[in-house]
Design a protein that fits this description.
Layout lengths: L3 E6 L5 H12 L4 E5 L6 H13 L4 E5 L4 H11 L3 E5 L1 H10 L4 H17 L3 E7 L10 H20 L2 E6 L2 E4 L2
Length: 174
Protein backbone atom coordinates (compact mmCIF):
# COMPACT_ATOMS: atom_id res chain seq x y z
CA UNK A 1 0.00 0.00 0.00
CA UNK A 2 1.27 3.46 -0.89
CA UNK A 3 1.88 5.84 1.99
CA UNK A 4 1.20 9.06 0.03
CA UNK A 5 -1.34 9.07 -2.79
CA UNK A 6 -1.95 12.09 -5.02
CA UNK A 7 -5.29 12.35 -6.87
CA UNK A 8 -5.96 15.03 -9.47
CA UNK A 9 -8.63 15.63 -12.09
CA UNK A 10 -11.21 18.07 -13.33
CA UNK A 11 -14.26 19.38 -11.54
CA UNK A 12 -16.70 16.66 -10.46
CA UNK A 13 -14.39 13.95 -11.82
CA UNK A 14 -14.69 11.82 -8.67
CA UNK A 15 -11.48 12.88 -6.91
CA UNK A 16 -12.93 13.22 -3.42
CA UNK A 17 -15.04 10.08 -3.64
CA UNK A 18 -12.03 8.06 -4.75
CA UNK A 19 -9.91 9.54 -1.94
CA UNK A 20 -12.53 8.59 0.64
CA UNK A 21 -12.83 5.09 -0.82
CA UNK A 22 -9.06 4.60 -0.58
CA UNK A 23 -9.02 5.97 2.97
CA UNK A 24 -11.88 3.68 4.00
CA UNK A 25 -10.12 0.64 2.58
CA UNK A 26 -6.74 1.38 4.07
CA UNK A 27 -7.16 2.09 7.78
CA UNK A 28 -9.54 1.80 10.69
CA UNK A 29 -10.77 4.93 12.48
CA UNK A 30 -9.91 7.49 13.46
CA UNK A 31 -9.53 8.94 10.04
CA UNK A 32 -8.66 12.60 9.50
CA UNK A 33 -10.02 14.96 6.90
CA UNK A 34 -7.98 18.12 6.30
CA UNK A 35 -10.40 20.66 4.83
CA UNK A 36 -9.07 23.69 2.96
CA UNK A 37 -12.45 25.17 2.00
CA UNK A 38 -13.87 28.21 3.73
CA UNK A 39 -17.63 28.79 3.87
CA UNK A 40 -17.53 32.36 2.58
CA UNK A 41 -20.78 32.23 0.59
CA UNK A 42 -23.88 30.08 0.14
CA UNK A 43 -22.45 28.12 -2.77
CA UNK A 44 -19.36 27.14 -0.79
CA UNK A 45 -21.46 26.31 2.28
CA UNK A 46 -23.51 23.95 0.08
CA UNK A 47 -20.36 22.37 -1.38
CA UNK A 48 -18.94 21.81 2.09
CA UNK A 49 -22.21 20.26 3.27
CA UNK A 50 -22.21 17.96 0.23
CA UNK A 51 -18.65 16.82 0.96
CA UNK A 52 -19.43 16.26 4.65
CA UNK A 53 -22.42 14.12 3.72
CA UNK A 54 -20.17 11.95 1.52
CA UNK A 55 -17.86 10.89 4.34
CA UNK A 56 -18.60 8.72 7.34
CA UNK A 57 -18.88 10.10 10.86
CA UNK A 58 -15.61 8.51 11.91
CA UNK A 59 -13.58 11.28 10.26
CA UNK A 60 -12.06 13.93 12.49
CA UNK A 61 -12.17 17.15 10.47
CA UNK A 62 -9.31 19.61 10.74
CA UNK A 63 -10.05 22.99 9.19
CA UNK A 64 -6.77 24.11 7.60
CA UNK A 65 -7.48 26.60 4.82
CA UNK A 66 -3.85 27.74 4.89
CA UNK A 67 -1.81 25.65 7.36
CA UNK A 68 -1.94 22.28 5.60
CA UNK A 69 1.65 21.25 6.37
CA UNK A 70 1.07 22.07 10.04
CA UNK A 71 -2.14 20.00 10.03
CA UNK A 72 -0.21 17.02 8.65
CA UNK A 73 2.43 17.42 11.36
CA UNK A 74 -0.32 17.50 14.03
CA UNK A 75 -1.99 14.38 12.58
CA UNK A 76 1.41 12.67 12.57
CA UNK A 77 1.85 13.54 16.28
CA UNK A 78 -1.59 12.08 17.04
CA UNK A 79 -0.61 8.78 15.41
CA UNK A 80 -3.44 8.62 12.89
CA UNK A 81 -3.75 5.82 10.39
CA UNK A 82 -4.96 7.87 7.42
CA UNK A 83 -5.62 11.47 6.44
CA UNK A 84 -7.33 12.94 3.39
CA UNK A 85 -6.34 16.45 2.31
CA UNK A 86 -9.13 17.98 0.23
CA UNK A 87 -8.05 20.04 -1.64
CA UNK A 88 -4.92 21.83 -2.81
CA UNK A 89 -6.93 23.81 -5.36
CA UNK A 90 -8.68 25.80 -2.63
CA UNK A 91 -5.49 25.97 -0.59
CA UNK A 92 -3.66 27.74 -3.42
CA UNK A 93 -6.66 30.02 -3.92
CA UNK A 94 -6.59 30.90 -0.20
CA UNK A 95 -2.87 31.70 -0.32
CA UNK A 96 -3.38 33.89 -3.40
CA UNK A 97 -6.24 35.67 -1.65
CA UNK A 98 -3.95 36.40 1.29
CA UNK A 99 -1.63 38.27 -1.08
CA UNK A 100 1.31 35.87 -0.96
CA UNK A 101 3.75 36.20 -3.82
CA UNK A 102 4.61 33.30 -6.10
CA UNK A 103 7.84 32.38 -4.32
CA UNK A 104 6.05 32.21 -0.94
CA UNK A 105 3.35 29.95 -2.40
CA UNK A 106 5.88 27.63 -4.04
CA UNK A 107 7.83 27.58 -0.77
CA UNK A 108 4.61 26.57 1.06
CA UNK A 109 4.09 23.79 -1.50
CA UNK A 110 7.65 22.59 -0.85
CA UNK A 111 6.98 22.64 2.90
CA UNK A 112 3.88 20.53 2.33
CA UNK A 113 5.90 18.09 0.23
CA UNK A 114 8.45 17.84 3.06
CA UNK A 115 5.66 17.30 5.62
CA UNK A 116 4.27 14.48 3.47
CA UNK A 117 7.74 12.90 3.27
CA UNK A 118 8.18 13.10 7.05
CA UNK A 119 4.71 11.93 8.14
CA UNK A 120 4.08 8.32 9.13
CA UNK A 121 0.32 7.96 8.42
CA UNK A 122 -1.15 7.17 5.05
CA UNK A 123 -2.03 10.48 3.37
CA UNK A 124 -4.28 10.98 0.35
CA UNK A 125 -4.03 14.37 -1.31
CA UNK A 126 -6.74 15.74 -3.62
CA UNK A 127 -6.12 18.56 -6.11
CA UNK A 128 -7.77 19.94 -9.20
CA UNK A 129 -6.26 19.79 -12.65
CA UNK A 130 -6.78 23.21 -14.20
CA UNK A 131 -4.09 23.27 -16.88
CA UNK A 132 -5.84 21.20 -19.53
CA UNK A 133 -8.11 23.96 -20.84
CA UNK A 134 -7.58 27.19 -22.68
CA UNK A 135 -5.17 29.84 -21.44
CA UNK A 136 -7.16 32.16 -19.15
CA UNK A 137 -7.52 35.70 -20.42
CA UNK A 138 -6.81 37.48 -17.13
CA UNK A 139 -3.48 37.59 -15.27
CA UNK A 140 -4.83 36.35 -11.90
CA UNK A 141 -6.42 33.28 -13.49
CA UNK A 142 -3.18 32.51 -15.37
CA UNK A 143 -1.18 32.95 -12.17
CA UNK A 144 -3.55 30.60 -10.28
CA UNK A 145 -3.33 27.99 -13.04
CA UNK A 146 0.47 28.13 -13.05
CA UNK A 147 0.84 28.02 -9.26
CA UNK A 148 -1.54 25.09 -8.93
CA UNK A 149 0.26 23.26 -11.74
CA UNK A 150 3.64 23.75 -10.06
CA UNK A 151 2.18 22.73 -6.69
CA UNK A 152 0.67 19.59 -8.22
CA UNK A 153 4.08 18.67 -9.64
CA UNK A 154 5.76 19.13 -6.23
CA UNK A 155 3.18 17.01 -4.43
CA UNK A 156 3.03 14.34 -7.15
CA UNK A 157 6.81 13.95 -6.88
CA UNK A 158 6.47 13.48 -3.10
CA UNK A 159 3.73 10.86 -3.59
CA UNK A 160 4.27 7.14 -3.90
CA UNK A 161 1.41 6.89 -6.36
CA UNK A 162 -0.63 9.36 -8.41
CA UNK A 163 -3.96 9.14 -10.21
CA UNK A 164 -5.81 11.28 -12.72
CA UNK A 165 -9.59 11.00 -12.35
CA UNK A 166 -11.75 11.08 -15.47
CA UNK A 167 -15.52 10.51 -15.38
CA UNK A 168 -15.26 8.77 -12.02
CA UNK A 169 -12.45 6.42 -13.02
CA UNK A 170 -8.86 6.57 -11.79
CA UNK A 171 -6.04 6.47 -14.32
CA UNK A 172 -2.72 5.54 -12.70
CA UNK A 173 0.01 8.06 -13.42
CA UNK A 174 2.65 6.48 -11.21
Amino acid sequence: MARVTFITGGARSGKSAYALALAGESCAPPRYFVATAEALDDEMRNRIAHHRAQRSNDYVTIEAPRAVAQAIAEIDRRGAGVAVIDCLTLWISNLLGDGLDDSAIIRAAGELGAALDAAKPRIIVVSGEVGAGIVPENPLARRFRDLLGWTNQIIARAADEAFLMAAGYPIRLK
